[in-house]
UniProtKB/TrEMBL annotation, chains A, B:
It comes from Stella humosa. The lineage of its organism: Bacteria, Pseudomonadati, Pseudomonadota, Alphaproteobacteria, Rhodospirillales. Belongs to the isocitrate and isopropylmalate dehydrogenases family. LeuB type 1 subfamily. InterPro entries: ICDH/IPMDH, IsoCit/isopropylmalate_DH_CS, IsoPropMal-DH-like_dom. Pfam families: Iso_dh. It is an enzyme of class 1 (oxidoreductase). This is 3-isopropylmalate dehydrogenase. Its cofactor is Mn(2+); Mg(2+). SUPFAM superfamilies: Isocitrate/Isopropylmalate dehydrogenase-like.
Length: 358, 358
């Protein structure tokens, strides 16, 4: 019996396939570690919108809100749009509606994946980008204006309330990583030399840093940070930044470790949390069994870890560690070399290789 | 005798040293190709501000405005700030005041420079990023607001007038590059799936594209473009984007070809043009003869080419080509391997190696 429940939203395209992988692995973990999560699956996304004119069925949104965690595949299709031309993205609304202010994007190189950076040090890349997810330039979503077909404006908003929560989250993460051997460093990425909002962001960062004397706090301008992510990513541990900057830099981060099929993510608030691979719905390869489930499986491990810590369930934390280690080992032993990054293995083989190692 | 004059602004730190290299090379070129540019040099920048309370001497600004081109080193020092805490950057004012709307950042790999990307295809990287330089998020410079120490805002502005000029510039460049063997492709980098201003930017791009049927026009979201710059930069030819996006992506571009000491740039308007290396004043290595003059020399070649085309002076275009080829050859022959990227050569040796090959 379980008192924790998760809302499962596979979404569009390969979201459905990688979610299949996640659910198979979850049930292996449930047996192996003796826990059960009540999972309720709901449709939703661009294909659903095309059929029904709604993003998600009635009730699915409330199910997501009341769940202990949301496990998310991918929503959106290039040829399905709202009347104003923007993408079908209920996910963006969830970030705001559920106050998922901290986007967590671990950037870690898996064994045996083709090197993107030439430096041998790139094998040890292990950093985390924290993306503010509810404001910044994205505060302007749905609010930008065009005046007379002559000029358009969008406004970037930084609030003290969100920034304080965000920085505390980042420092806290750095402290926990330090306990496991990382540098214990948070880098605030901004453009305080040009923008008032960014100077404000930095000022709040400096204020919050004082409560974490055991963690080192540094600043980096966003352009220089992008350069250093490519040239020497090993100088970073935890990076924290505004929504739009992080949207870009976390893809640079995904790039240096081999692409989005390997990039898990979590979107965390004080009340809710959503876990999803950082890749999109990839309709070009959907339905062919070629999707790389790695990012989805690592996101699932992040969910188990978060649930375990939040609810004091040691078994969930153990299951998370086991899943993470199984992925790492499947790659290290050459049993998982996804087609998406040039290897021979489709969704089923990668999933099987991971399950066999749990 | 010369009727073309350039305003020379060495600025701070290594700006002074690399400008020395540029002037030495320019005088070699003048002799070899039989032309003369009247060069007027002015101080200015952060050190000047510290001493005088002014950014530049009276008259220097007007000299810059009335020159046929501005050759710029680097201005700014980390510990010298305006009272509001932002950097001493007369350069940012010039962009707006002289309407230098098109920032041109060639991303090209020089021979024998240490590989940053592992792929062998990275040896052939040759693309150009066009950065809008007068508006976008930077329209908010000096205009952002903080409300009650609670919330801060900066506004991104896209105008039709500037965007049209910008896209025409990009398509025109792609057309000229196509004549020399490039793909003939312009990629508009935006976030039209989320922001009204970016959908407006893209719409104008599509409109202007129709006047250049011989050039291919594509779109790319900014996050995906950042990823592809790292994973497969060879898919790009000319990229064009909003000011802030380009500030970040052009540093990613600089990163994949070895860093800012190799990255030239031009800032072009309809009336004025400024040429400068993309790196900063690097006070940590200033005065030691260690600065890498390559970016400055390649920027000087861009200036000669631009002046030559604009004023119909074939000799200037030839001098530009000769300088560019001399840099390329100095690297190919191992005579220029700057200390900044791990080689043995300081400013003087690199400069000498290039001069010897003109
Ligand atoms: C689909 C898009 C709107 C979204 C974003 O920009 O947040 C995506 O890029 C992401 O990073 O989750
Ligand atoms: C110094 C800084 C304000 C400037 C900018 O952001 O434009 C620099 O990064 C550049 O790219 O020229």
């Amino acid at each position: 019996m379980s008192d924790l429940n998760i809302c499962v939203l596979p979404g569009d395209g390969i979201g459905v396939e990688v979610m299949g992988a996640a659910r198979a692995v979850l049930s292996t973990l449930e047996k192996r570690f003796g826990f059960r999560l009540a999972a309720e699956e709901h449709p939703g996304g661009a294909a659903y919108w095309r059929e029904t004119g709604r993003e998600m069925p009635q009730g699915a949104w409330e199910a997501a809100r009341s769940a202990d965690a949301i496990l998310f595949g991918s929503m959106g299709l290039p040829d399905v749009r709202y009347p104003d031309g923007t993408e079908i993205a209920p996910h963006l609304k969830m970030r705001v509606d559920f106050d998922l202010f901290a986007g967590v994007r671990p950037i870690r190189r898996l064994p045996n994946t083709p090197a993107v950076l030439a430096s041998p040090r790139a094998a040890d890349i292990d950093l985390v980008i924290i993306r503010e997810l509810t404001e910044g330039l994205f505060a302007s979503r749905g609010k930008g204006v065009v005046i007379d077909d002559r000029e358009a404006r969008d406004t970037l908003v930084i609030t003290r309330a969100t920034s304080e929560k965000l920085f505390d989250f980042a420092f806290d993460l750095a402290r926990r990583r330090k306990a496991k051997g990382s540098a214990g460093l948070v880098t605030c990425v901004d453009k305080a030399n040009v923008f008032v909002s960014m100077a404000f962001f930095r000022k709040i960062f400096d204020e919050r840093a004082r409560n974490f004397p055991d963690v080192e706090a540094r600043h980096h301008y966003v352009d220089a940070a992008a350069l250093d992510l490519v040239r020497k990513p090993w100088v970073f541990d935890v990076m924290v930044m505004e929504n739009m900057y992080a949207d870009i830099l976390s893809d640079v981060g995904g790039g240096i470790v081999g692409g989005m099929g390997l990039a898990p993510s979590a979107e965390i608030g004080l009340e809710h949390a959503l876990f999803q691979p950082a890749h999109g719905s990839a309709p070009d390869i959907a339905g062919q069994g070629l999707a790389n489930p790695t990012a989805m499986l690592l996101s699932t491990a992040m969910m188990l870890e978060w649930l375990g810590h939040r609810h004091g369930r040691e078994r969930l934390v153990e299951a998370a560690d086991a899943l993470d280690a199984a992925v790492e080992r499947a790659f290290a032993e050459g049993a998982a070399f996804p087609a998406e990054i040039g290897g021979p293995h489709g969704t089923a083989e990668v999933t099987r290789a991971v399950m066999d190692r749990i």
